[in-house]
């Protein structure tokens, strides 16, 4: 069971939440720099207050950082729509060619920001997703990722059969993979 109370110690206002836990925790939360402390039920209030007093410089530093961030002019995001449109156009041209070669049919494709992947394939829905970051790469690398994802419609895993299909349909895929992922080891 949780209980939350409001406290002020020196000039620091904070909320104290009591709950089942082992240690006292403190965080400063954006956008207002609110101070939130969590503590075990068994810890006396005087110990919590000492903890807050000990961390007051750290608290003020983090509140100042949050204030600076909130007051900073927002950086305008570049207009990505022209890149997205050009990439969709290119994929629209490549997709039917590769579907015919591989004898597969994707239900559709999309382009979105992806943080950790160049593409993905939902084998159940047969939808292909491609990273918008590919718009900044050479056109043959976009084609490589598209083929890679389409091959997943033939073989879901990254196994010998999958790589056999890649070798058959795009013999130079390893070179393209290495250019796209220089730190990756290629099978």
Q: Record the strand order, biggest sheet.
A: 1-2-4-3
In CATH terms, the superfamily of the largest domain is Metalloproteases ("zincins"), catalytic domain
β-strand percent reads: 15-25%
Shape, principal axes of CA atoms: elongated
Please compute the radius of gyration using only Cα atoms.
26 Å
Would you write up a description of this structure?
The two termini are 52 Å apart. This protein has helices at 45-54, 56-71, 81-102, 139-151, 160-169, 173-180, and strands spanning 3-9, 12-19, 25-29, 34-40, 108-112, 119-122, 127-131. The strands form 2 sheets. Strands 1-2-4-3 form a 4-stranded mixed beta sheet. It has a 3-stranded mixed beta sheet with strand order 5-7-6, with helices on one face. The protein is elongated and about 75 Å long. Helix 3 crosses helix 4 (139-151). The chain has 2 domains: 3-71, no CATH class; 81-180, 2-Layer Sandwich (Zincin-like), CATH 3.30.2010. The chain has 6 helices and 7 strands, in the order E-E-E-E-H-H-H-E-E-E-H-H-H. By secondary structure, it is an alpha/beta fold. InterPro entries: UTP_pyrophosphatase-like, YgjP-like_metallopeptidase. It holds the Pfam family YgjP-like.
List keywords for this structure.
alpha/beta, Zincin-like, four-stranded mixed β-sheet, three-stranded mixed β-sheet, 187 residues, 2 domains, M48 family peptidase, elongated
Give a short overview.
With 187 residues, this protein is of the alpha/beta class.
Write the layout of secondary structure elements.
Layout: E1 3-9, E2 12-19, E3 25-29, E4 34-40, H1 45-54, H2 56-71, H3 81-102, E5 108-112, E6 119-122, E7 127-131, H4 139-151, H5 160-169, H6 173-180
Helix pairs in contact: 3-4
């Amino acid at each position: 069971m949780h209980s939350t109370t409001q406290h002020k110690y020196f000039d620091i206002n904070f909320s104290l939440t009591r709950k089942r836990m082992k240690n006292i925790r403190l965080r400063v939360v954006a956008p207002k720099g609110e101070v939130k402390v969590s503590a075990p039920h068994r810890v006396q209030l005087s110990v919590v207050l000492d903890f807050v007093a000990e961390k007051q410089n750290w608290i003020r530093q983090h509140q100042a950082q949050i204030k600076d961030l909130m007051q900073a002019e927002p950086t305008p995001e570049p207009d990505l729509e022209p890149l997205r449109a050009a990439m969709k156009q290119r994929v629209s041209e490549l997709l039917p060619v590769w579907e015919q070669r591989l004898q597969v049919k994707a239900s559709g494709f999309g382009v979105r920001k992806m943080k950790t992947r160049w593409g993905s394939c939902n084998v159940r829905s047969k939808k292909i997703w491609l990273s918008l970051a590919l718009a900044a790469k050479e056109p043959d690398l976009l084609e490589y990722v598209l083929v890679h994802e389409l091959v997943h419609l033939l073989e879901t895993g990254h196994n010998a059969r999958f790589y056999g299909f890649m070798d058959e349909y795009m013999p130079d895929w390893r070179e393209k993979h290495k250019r796209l992922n220089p730190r990756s080891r290629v099978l």
